[in-house]
Amino acid sequence: MTFEPSELTPDRSVRHFYGADLRRHRANGDWSLVKLAGEVPCSKSQLARIETAESTVPPGLSEEFDRVFGTDGHFTRLYALMKHEVQHPDQYREFMKLEAEAEFISFYAAHIVPGLLQTEAYAREVLSCDPETPDDEVETLVRARLSRQERLTSERPPFHWTVLDEAALRRPIGGPAAMREQLAALLPLVDTRTTKIQVLPFGHGAHALLGGSLTLLKLPNSRDVAYEEGNETSRLYEDSQQVGKWQRLYDDVRAFALSPRESAALIGQMMEEHGSCDPST
User: What does the domain layout of the chain look like in residue ranges?
Assistant: First the structure.
């Protein structure tokens, strides 16, 4: 069977242009992926992913490309430009694909319950906050969010570890009934064979992840990625040094969180604060 290289789209971002230019120089120099992998500190599979913009470029590799191809700093300059690119257009789609493949998912949420753990009413309230989002689009987004959760109850679910800031549980989203339902949905997941939930109490004070949410994914090929999300921007990290930094920050936060048993007790207490789910009482 003849190998057909993936189609490239160099006009989509600096990252895509970098990959396309790498393939162009490789082809012009009659370098196979195997041959190039023997000359630079990068595997054949990762080189292929760099060419199709599926993987970030590790630090120091651009200088190696310039050495091999004799390109006088061309790839080094492209790399500097790529690092300043806020995000490439497909990063959220790429994150969703990686999340669906992940074997281990670690999550920190500062302000709201993460999408993988949201109830329908809670998700609808969160997704309808933007007044510019039409109602029919909100419903489409709700269905998509709930469909992501199906893998958690599949025959081979990923291991899912969540650290929730106390603020994410105290904010009454959707009214008392919806909030009580959301808190109740968390309790069965606090400490199971494949899920852990811990609450980071207000008493811990300031920490490095206060600004938003962080997801760490461990993939079947031993590849680790991190996804940081804020109000207006988000970013997917694939470089091992950057992912390692986010892993250390996550570990620091988790170290100060309540145990699963203590977290369950606090969540139960919050449920009582939202009153009975029985309207007759």
Answer: 14-83, 91-118+148-273
